[in-house]
Structures are given as structure tokens and as C-alpha cells.
């Protein structure tokens, strides 16, 4: 689409009166289109198939799908013209150019070493305890949206910027255990991937955490 727009812009420039304001505007548009195309292209196609960053094990993708989003910059991954990687542990996806900027450790490592849930409901401590910075990338955030909107993760209670919190929805274990509430809540990208990896692990000892729940939920009585 960009290539087609560039060619169309060239034709418009040649058709317009020389040195006219419209021609100058068309030239500026052409420059912007070319810069955008250059930004999308990767500088080096001969990149390694495997990259290890912060315990992520990234594999270069061969899929040409354009429906993926980069977990680092939140922009679309244009598979046709961009190189991109996926972590085999937590399925973190990002552009090749974003790999050096990855700041989130692989949550698969946390699942392997510390397979347990946060069992307090939205344990908020306040933005001041985070120095008004994103809990993950440390970008400045505030509740007023200046310079960036602070989004709370219902699982951790921490605040994240819009690049680290996409308003993904997930069932929060603490709400299910204490309130039998399975309504999906907004969580950060990191929490969403952690919960997805933990969902099949039998780590919740319900009789110890909330034994009274068996008196109120018929299905649990049958299971017991």
C-alpha cells in the first residue's frame, strides 16, 4: 500500500505546475511516505534464528501474518516486510528492531520457579509507591493521563502505561477464590501471560484458603 501511494504521489508531482504550492505539498508527502516505508523495512535480514533476552528464548518467525501486535512498541507487525520474533516460553512477540528494548523478563521462568498466585484482591499500594512510573518499563504515568495514562492491573494492583497494559481481560484467581467471581477484569500484558501459563497448574489448596466456600457452592460440594 505504501509503495502504491509513493508511485501515485510521483505521478501527482509530475502533473502539477512546477514550483506551485500544491507540488511542494505533494513532495513533502512523498518524503513522509518514503520515510515510513524505510522505517518498516529491516536493516538486516540475515539475523539469527534464535535470540535469548531476559530469559526469553526468541525464535525468528517465518509467518507472513500481519495480524500480530508487537508487545514492546504496541504497533502492528507487518510480516510481509518485517522480521519478528516470538518467545517459545511465554509467546511474547516483537519486531526484530524492538528486541534490544525488551524490559519484561519471560514469565515462563516465574511459572517454573515460583508457581503461585497473588491471592489478595487487587492489592493496590498507590502510584506514589511506584514514583509515578509504569511498574514494568518505568515510563512516567499519572491518573490524569499526563504524560501517559496509568492503567491499573486488577491482578497485581500495580499501575502500567498503555504500552504495557492493553486492557486485556482475564479471570482473577483471588476474586474467584474469595468471592466465587469469574468476571474477567483488566490486567497488564505480563499478568495476562502469567495467568494463561498458570491456568492448568493445580496450585490452589481451596480447603486451606477458603474452606467456607464449600458450604455455599453446590458444585464444590459434589467435587469434594
CATH 4th-level superfamily of the largest domain: Zinc/RING finger domain, C3HC4 (zinc finger)
Q: Please tally the β strands and state the result.
A: 10
**Mean pLDDT, all residues:** 85
User: What about the largest sheet?
Assistant: 4 strands, antiparallel
Between the first and last Cα atoms, what is the distance in angstroms?
Answer: 60 Å
CATH topology of the largest domain: Herpes Virus-1
Uncertain regions: pLDDT < 50 for 5+ in a row?
A: none
In the CATH hierarchy, what is the class of the largest domain?
A: Alpha Beta
Oligomer: single chain
The assigned structural class equals alpha+beta
- Strands side by side in the biggest sheet: 1-2-5-6
Radius of gyration: 24 Å
Basic shape: elongated
Keywords: Metal-binding, Repeat, Zinc, Zinc-finger
InterPro entries: C1-like_sf (IPR046349), DEF8 (IPR051366), DEF8_C1 (IPR047983), PKC_DAG/PE (IPR002219), RH_dom (IPR025258)
Function: Positively regulates lysosome peripheral distribution and ruffled border formation in osteoclasts. Involved in bone resorption.
Domain Phorbol-ester/DAG-type: 55-106
Amino acid at each position: 500500500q505504501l509503495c502504491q501511494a509513493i508511485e501515485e504521489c510521483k505521478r501527482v508531482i509530475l502533473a502539477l505546475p512546477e514550483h506551485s504550492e500544491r507540488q511542494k505539498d505533494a513532495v513533502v508527502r512523498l518524503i513522509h511516505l518514503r520515510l515510513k516505508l524505510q522505517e518498516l523495512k529491516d536493516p538486516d535480514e540475515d539475523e539469527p534464528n534464535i535470540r535469548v533476552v531476559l530469559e526469553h528464548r526468541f525464535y525468528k518467525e517465518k509467518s507472513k501474518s500481519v495480524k500480530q501486535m508487537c508487545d514492546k512498541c504496541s504497533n502492528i507487525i507487518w510480516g510481509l516486510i518485517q522480521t519478528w520474533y516470538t518467545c517459545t516460553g511465554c509467546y511474547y512477540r516483537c519486531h526484530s528492531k524492538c528486541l534490544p528494548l525488551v524490559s519484561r523478563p519471560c514469565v515462563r521462568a516465574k511459572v517454573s520457579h515460583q508457581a503461585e498466585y497473588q491471592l489478595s484482591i487487587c492489592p493496590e499500594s498507590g502510584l506514589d509507591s511506584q514514583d509515578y512510573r509504569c511498574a514494568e518499563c518505568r515510563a512516567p504515568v499519572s491518573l490524569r493521563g499526563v504524560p501517559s495514562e496509568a492503567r491499573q492491573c486488577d491482578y497485581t494492583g500495580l499501575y502500567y502505561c498503555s504500552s504495557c497494559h492493553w486492557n486485556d481481560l482475564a479471570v482473577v484467581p483471588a476474586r474467584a477464590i474469595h468471592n466465587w467471581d469469574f468476571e474477567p477484569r483488566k490486567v497488564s500484558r505480563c499478568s495476562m501471560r502469567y495467568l494463561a501459563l498458570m491456568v492448568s497448574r493445580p496450585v490452589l489448596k481451596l480447603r486451606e484458603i477458603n474452606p467456607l466456600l464449600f458450604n455455599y457452592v453446590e458444585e464444590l460440594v459434589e467435587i469434594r
